[in-house]
Amino acid sequence: MTDLFSNEKVNTGRQVELDIAKALSIIFMIFLHTLMVVKGFNYSLSPAYDFLISNVLGRPCAAPVFMFCMGVGIVYSRRSQWDIMVKRGITLYLLGILVNIFEFFLPGFICGTLLGRWDIFPMAGGLLLFCVDILAFAGLAFVLMGILKKFNLSNKWLAIIAVSMSLIGTLLRGTDFGMPILNLFFANFIGSAGGFSAFPLFNWFIFPVAGYIWGQYFIRAKNKGQFFKYWPLFIIAAIVYFYVSSQVFGSGVFSKDVHLYYFMTTLDAIFCIIYAHGNIGLCYYLAKFLPDKIIKAFSILSSNINNIYIAQWCFIPLGVIFLVYLFKGLVFNDLISALYSVCMLILSTLFAIHYKKLRTKN
User: Fold this and answer.
1) Phi-psi map region of 13: left, alpha, beta (phi>0 left; psi -120 to 50 alpha)
2) Beta strand ranges found along 37-171 (DSSP E)
3) Is 136 helix (H, G, I), strand (E, B) or coil?
4) Is residue 208 within 8 Å of residue 140, measured between CB atoms?
5) Which residues in 132-235 belong to E strands, given as ranges?
6) Distances (CA, A) of 98 to 3, 129, 130, 195, 313
7) Which of 32, 68, 187, 190 is the S-S candidate for 276 at Cβ 3.0 to 4.6 Å?
8) What pLDDT digit, counting tens, does each position of 18-63 carry?
9) What's the rounded Cα separation, in Å, for the pair 302 and 18?
């Protein structure tokens, strides 16, 4: 171990493989969210394309990697003081509520007005305003990480807390508290009934903690080639587990029931973490062959990832509604869905870059 890791930080500054991994995660999320929206309208997707985006690229390759890298980012951040993290977490949680307006309420109103379809975008009587999506989870995670950092806990205790929370989330997933408002409140923490949470804190906090601990080793790795030496085995082991758990046990990350992914078990999470290491290792080796322009594009996506995530939920649902309104009988097949996803990626990125420039000027 002493031959691989330095006592001092070695890999400082932006790391190309992390930029690529984060960029790919937001790309896959945009492709996934496009399918989530178009499935409310006329669509004809091939089973292969649907499974690839909805169950593979849009699941272990997306949110788990995103949240893992979020934890790694804390190691690299110069603003990782506990109080700053708590404030950032509150901001992210409020942004998550803002995103819910664009994801559910605004498109629901426009879809109902233009198309007479009030059933496509759920609102749950207004309660989905507080649905726990990835930004809301990130907010809660930053608040909790900040509090734990205040007490200067060791990595061992952080791991114990994260695994314990994951086990509790596993045992309590799907709990119905008998009232929508109670299900909504507890959806912040566990996968309660009612569809109010995609990323409950207890089930997913293990990812930023794992990334935070992993990042402390990565930043001191003297030889990245050695650090990522067995990345193919990590990816293969994870994919095999995901496939077997879905085909044999009917559960897990590749399951037909998306809630078995959203409310994943501790074992599912562990294999997602194993995959995340392999994924970043793959990105490390890919970076050696990619031209500088492509690497720069990945860096732009990575550095604007939060704003891109917010923007894509503003554009994807509204764009689909207006396309259906303008082109009667439009059917979203593989090609149209993929092209639309690419357009949304470009549009969201341009919006994020422009917003960043405006903030810099002010």
Assistant:
1) left
2) 43-44
3) helix
4) no
5) none
6) 48, 8, 9, 18, 10
7) 68
8) 999 999 999 999 999 999 999 999 999 999 999 999 999 999 999 9
9) 8
